[in-house]
Amino acid sequence: MIMYCDLPQFGLIHFTGTEAGSFLQNQLTCDVNGLPPGRATYGAYCTPKGRALATFLLWRAAADQYYLQLPAAQREPTQKRLAMYVLRAKVKLEDAGPLWEMSGLCGAEAGPRVEAISGALARQERDVVAAAGVMAVRLPGERYLVLLSQAAQPETRRRLREDTQARPPAHWDWLDICAGIPFVGTATREAFVPQMLNLDLIGGLSYNKGCYPGQEIVARTHYLGRLKQRTYRIHLAEGEPRPGDKLYSAGLGDQACGSIVNAAPGSEGGFDALATMRIDAAASGTVCWNAPDGPAVEILTLPYAVTVDG
Questions:
Q1: Residue 294 to residue 164: CA distance in whole angstroms
Q2: 40, 106, 163, 298: least surrounded by Cβ within 10 Å?
Q3: Where in the chain is the domain with CATH 2.40.30.110?
Q4: Taking Cα atoms as reference points, which of 202, 143, 200 lies closest to residue 173?
Q5: What is the dihedral of CA 8, 23, 78, 227, to 10 degrees?
Q6: What CATH topology corresponds to 2-179?
Q7: Are 291 and 281 spatial neighbours (Cβ–Cβ below 8 Å)?
Q8: Strands 164-167 and 2-6
Q9: Structural contact between residues 299 and 269, judged by C-beta atoms closer than 8 angstroms
């Protein structure tokens, strides 16, 4: 069975122009120059102090065309800030959200469904396939981000949803949490350096690409080994965690050891979340939500190894 989710929680920025790639290369943490057409990457946009203003999925649809997907509330401030630095560069930014209908497919049969409507097979994670009025990005965990334009045929829309099991948008958020993919929102804007969000572990951070806002701080964290926090997947059996909520460990008393990045209802009750926390606190195994004597959280595994270096 294919699970289908509408994704109104995301926004989309479209970049076009002969200098779109070089512009993004100079602004983002990921290696845009190394991104060929038909490939996607995760990344972050930082302040000069190395704090993440936004995290995103970026893909190169064609030679001079890029799309950046991020939480809907982050689209406007991120686009406005990036636009300030365009100056004379040959690049155009536009809000592409109204032009594309975003949805997600998940399950063993999701790949064949995407191939049927696009005419192309996404062979590996982060491959991008496109056809008339259709774009799709293969994501970790048998998932596909699918975009249908206003030009998509009604038959394409019907075939996309045919014999699928509808799930709420929060289910997609939970799948991102299970995959260890962090999205910075309004409550956590400027709260984390990219390594705290594991972006270096999921291919969203390059140490060889040259300068971008915050690059000096990010590089110093890496080369001097000063990273004290990582992102972990946790489960909370009671309560409703929200982005920005604090976490506590016994060894630190009233001092917070971390905070919630993303949270969504778990598949079997309670809530799952991605949370940054001190590496020593995670190793202790005793972490509580919202107060030093609050409900205990369970630290779950991620599909990639969480290393302690930055």
A1: 40
A2: 163
A3: 228-301
A4: 143
A5: 100
A6: Gyrase A; domain 2 (3.30.1360)
A7: no
A8: parallel
A9: no
Q: Would you say 187 and 284 are in contact if contact means Cβ atoms under 8 Å apart?
A: no
Going 271 to 274 to 275 to 281, the CA torsion angle's sign is: positive
Task: Choose among 132, 139, 112: nearest CA to 10.
Answer: 139
May I ask the CATH class of domain 228-301? mainly beta
Tokens of 234: 């946790």
Give the residue range(s) of CATH 3.30.1360.120 domains in the chain: 2-179
Length of the chain: 310
pLDDT tens for the 310 residues of the chain, in order: 999 999 999 999 999 999 999 999 999 999 999 999 999 999 999 999 999 999 999 999 999 999 999 999 999 999 999 999 998 899 999 999 999 999 999 999 999 999 999 999 999 999 999 998 999 999 998 999 999 998 888 899 999 999 999 999 999 999 999 999 999 999 999 999 999 999 999 999 999 998 999 999 999 888 877 789 999 999 999 999 999 999 999 888 899 999 999 999 999 999 999 999 999 999 988 999 999 999 999 999 999 999 887 6
Rounded Cα distance, 300 and 232, in Å: 7
CA pair distance 272, 178, nearest whole angstrom: 8
Contacts 24+ apart (CB under 8 A), 265-269: 265/170, 265/174, 266/174, 266/235, 267/174, 269/237
At 144, list the tokens: 């596909």
